[in-house]
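Please, is this right?
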Amino acid sequence: MDDVDVNVLQIENMEYLFDMEVDGDQEELDGDDDDIRNGRVPKRYLRDFQNPFEHWNENQFTSRYRFSKGVVMYYILPLVRHELDLANSRRGLPVSPEIQLTLGLRYYATNMFQKANGDIHGLSQSTVCLCVRRVSLALAGLFTQFVQLPTDEEQMLNTQLFYTIAGMKGIYALIDGVLIKIASPGSAIAELFRCRKGYFALNVLAIVDAKGSFRYMDVRHPGSVHDMTALDRSALKMLFERGFLKGISLGDPGYACKRYLFTPFVQASNEAEQAFNDSLIATRSFIERIFGRWKKKFPCLRLGLSTKLDTSIATICATAVLWNIHVNLNYSSRLDLENLDIQPEAFAEPPRAGLSGLEYRREYVMRYFT
């Protein structure tokens, strides 16, 4: 009998608790109905966005986002705010342009997993993925504004500055290709992107000026494409051959020697050719250092991009824009054209009509290195 009484009491208590829960839900629903009738829509939940501009001090912010608070807020953000605002939906809980930009910069600066990046701000992985893509496309849209071919005055300036490195006359730009690791694009074209080092990559063709900023970049070529093939397929070759770019550029032995592109001698046969090789290598190593500094500032380029192919291409263009912003803001004022004394000895005589690249290089060595 005692067991039966206990069970009966438990059932009665459960019914009592059930009645209380129903009554409580009914009261909450009645309250919501009152709010709706009065024109007030109750907010169901809040999302706590961590504001990195307030949370980190200046040094901590710069180490995590690669730019100071002032540069991000008052220089970079105004350039892309319009695009990020248009991408925002006013439904639900939109992500502010400030948070979207810091999400993108944090990804470039750390190559952080998107889920871990979203945990900082209470966002899902899919939201972070969309934000990184929006920021990359917005910055890539500024590519032609920040990555431009040098003007005639800037070419003269570059010639002067390159001459001070190792005595090479008439050099206005350095050219090279760099491999950027990416995730496998999948489908039948995947193996086209496998580079000579065994991983999937994009072969990025670029020219660099004496400041270290990018003046041309082509990110269309898969990793299996040779550097010379990438140059032959680019618009840069047409600009060289039609004389829009004056002077001489320097490349590694992977390129063919042209009237506008000098490469080192494979085997120097005399002291003059050896001196030419030494001077060329010392000058051309500058672009290798720029690639290394570019990848160090944005480790996502060094560790590998795990996004889709089109997003990876946009990310490379975006980081090139950010790199040029960094160079323009931090390079010393010694590149002021008005105050620079151009030295005539820094310029080389142009090639005579009809000379091939090998003949012009031989004449150049005899004139300046004998």
About this structure: The beta strands are 171-181, 201-208, 214-222, 248-250, 261-262.
